[in-house]
Amino acid sequence: MTGENEQCRQAQGCTITSKKDTKQTMKAVAWYGNKDIRIIDHPRPLVTDPHDVILKVTSTAICGSDLHIYLGCVPGMEKGDILGHEFMGIVEDMGSEVKHLKKGDRVVTAFDIGCHKCDFCTGKQKLYSSCDNTNDSKQQEQLYGHRTAGMFGYSHVTGGWDGGQAQYVRVPFADTNTLKVPAGLSDEKALFLSDILPTGWHATELGEVEAGQTVAIWGCGPVGMLAALSAQYKKASRVILIDNVQYRLDYAKKHLPGVETINFSTRSTLEQLKELLPNGPDVGIEAVGCHYAKSTSHKTQMLIGLETDPSDILNEMIMAVRKGGMISVIGIYVGTTNGFNIGAFMEKGMRMAAGQTPCQRYWPTLLPLIEKGELDPSFVITHTVPLDKAPDMYKMFNDKMDNCVKVVLKP
Prior knowledge:
Blueprint: E1 10-11, E2 14-15, E3 20-33, E4 36-45, E5 53-62, H1 66-70, E6 81-82, E7 86-94, E8 106-109, E9 112-113, H2 119-122, H3 138-144, E10 150-151, E11 168-171, H4 174-177, E12 178-180, H5 187-190, H6 196-206, E13 214-218, H7 222-233, E14 238-243, H8 246-255, E15 260-263, H9 269-276, E16 283-286, H10 296-303, H11 312-320, E17 326-329, H12 342-347, E18 351-354, H13 359-371, E19 383-386, H14 390-399, E20 407-410
Organism: Adineta steineri
InterPro entries: ADH-like_N (IPR013154), ADH_Zn_CS (IPR002328), ER (IPR020843), GroES-like_sf (IPR011032), NAD(P)-bd_dom_sf (IPR036291)
GO molecular function, one term: zinc ion binding
């Protein structure tokens, strides 16, 4: 997938497979199989379509959803795929139709690739993550009935775009998919506009979180913590984070004053939640995803291929959230599940909303809040290391070693 003879793949209105400069290579983080992450020499990308920019990457991060790839839970991966969808950098080169950027501009990039032409990108809801024109995957269309947007570094089911855990990356439709970063704002404060801050905010939008409500968040990783930050900003009366990794719960309490925590390794989530909120939380946020099965039954069914995703967490949320309550799902799910408690969901009169985050939609809200110091997502960073340490950091992040919460890589 790396040479001059690589076949160019076209989605509507854009070229997915970029031209390559075979005379100049770069370091990149690539997937070669389950728990097999490597640093490779890869030809640098070139401007391929007139609306492209080439970024020299200054900061890139490992996302919790990258661990789904690391563990082999995401279909459509091919050996040598370049990973990474949380990145920012400096404009190195650009196509002739880029209107709002210039060489040398410092920008952060959305993980979801919008075209700003289709009905989803230009509609009232600005659903860039549902773009019609940036993903050519027939497999995804067969799985889901439609294709969603292309996504950087996240398998051929989302287009097979090269990711940004690299020294250079090509960004298509750059006027839509990049955001200029003010000079006074550090990489650490801006980087997470690429994904996890908008995703945490999106969780509270899907959950329709309002002042005075109670919010329980399953998963105390970076996204769960930023969902808690967003809920607190929206003046939720109580925010409860649920996990079984005590150092993460302690970390959240240290950096998010007022947040409450539940460690389900000591006693069941349902028992502890009922003591805190007898009627159940108003809103439950799922920030866990597909590879964390709690029960032996679902671990076995996933192992032998009877399902791709467990329903453990969703069922627990249905049991816990109050009657008439709201469930927001922003953890990654990829396929089918068994044993979903649709009866309880229906009889309790609940609602559920889910979806990949249209990052670009939230930038006009979130960037000013960061600039004013009202939101600071950088607190989740625990490790900043050179890019070539990525294989070790994937293992550390996945195995929850060295009190790791969030890893930033510096190319």
